[in-house]
Design a protein that fits this description.
- The chain contains 13 helices and 2 strands.
- It has 285 residues and is mainly alpha-helical.
- Strand 1 (39-40) and strand 2 (48-51) form a beta hairpin.
- It is globular and about 75 Å long.
Length: 285
């Protein structure tokens, strides 16, 4: 084997374990879901013989499912936006703040990840419930006459999702800001730029890769979230992920559940690609 062939073989061998892992545990299950979405519904079985487009026809003909996709996207957008607004100042403080408090900040940001998502979501039911801590406190202080509707609606789901996914927004942005040379901001200030102008013209544009990564992570995780929407939303507000699990497990409709899962995946992927191209255009501008 000549030297150029060895050089080409080396990188392939390095990525081979990851490629095999992705192929077995990601590509093959996805292909199985695609095939399953075209299978006939079964009678007492997960699916019947033959193939059909009826599962997708059922999705598009019933506005209930389309509305669920719209609601899920809306919850994902709001969760991502709030995580960005709340997470960017924290990320900037962790990257550029006083080193004495940086370790404490890291611990506070990472500590929620050490607790299971079920426990965190259940904790929010204790806080947001009609007889929860928030409503009992406000009622006890005489600020409200009856309980505020903080659970079993989109508001409660978004509050809990922001808490759950906020670290996934903070960490990529913090990494991007840490990669910005502080001398660039110092040079801008020395030339007369204000703090706001320096942030708007230097820090914010150069931190866009972190913003892009954080927004995509939080948006995708929000769309596919199951535990938090099912606990906080109950039976009154259902996201598409909850409906997919209901179809697959409760009603045993594997073909229709697979079609719902694919429609959610395709819709989310379209928005992720659009957002990715939009942010790339902004970098080049």
């Amino acid at each position: 084997m000549n030297v150029p062939s060895k050089k080409r073989l080396g990188p392939l061998l390095l990525i081979a374990p990851a490629a095999i892992l992705l192929g077995v545990f990601l590509v093959l299950p996805y292909l199985n879901i695609v095939v399953m979405s075209f299978r006939m519904p079964g009678q007492g079985t997960p699916y019947g013989p033959g193939f059909t487009l009826g599962n997708y026809g059922k999705f598009f003909s019933d506005f209930f499912y389309v509305q669920q996709v719209i609601n899920t996207l809306w919850i994902g957008f709001l969760t991502t936006f709030l995580c960005l607004i709340l997470g960017y100042p924290v990320a900037w403080q962790l990257a550029r703040g006083a080193s004495a408090f940086r370790a404490v900040g890291y611990a506070l940001v990472l500590s929620p990840l050490l607790v299971g998502i079920v426990i965190r979501s259940y904790g929010w039911t204790i806080l947001l419930g009609n007889n929860g801590i928030i409503n009992r406190t406000l009622t006890g202080w005489g600020l409200i006459d009856g309980p505020l509707p903080l659970m079993y609606n989109a508001l409660g789901i978004i509050i809990a999702l922001v808490h759950v996914f906020l670290p996934f927004m903070i960490l990529p942005i913090m990494s991007a800001i840490q990669g910005i040379d502080p001398s660039l901001e110092a040079a801008a200030r020395s030339l007369g730029a204000s703090k706001i102008t320096s942030f708007r013209r230097i820090t914010l544009p150069l931190s866009l890769p972190g913003i892009q990564a954080g927004c995509i992570l939080v948006f995708v995780l929000s769309l596919s979230a199951y535990v938090t929407p099912s606990l906080i939303g109950g039976l009154r507000v259902k996201t598409m992920a909850v409906t997919v699990v209901d179809a697959l497990i409760d009603t045993f409709q594997w073909p229709f559940g697979s079609a719902l899962a694919l429609m959610l995946s395709v819709t989310g992927a379209i928005f992720v690609v659009f957002f990715g191209r939009l942010t790339v255009m902004k970098w080049k501008a």
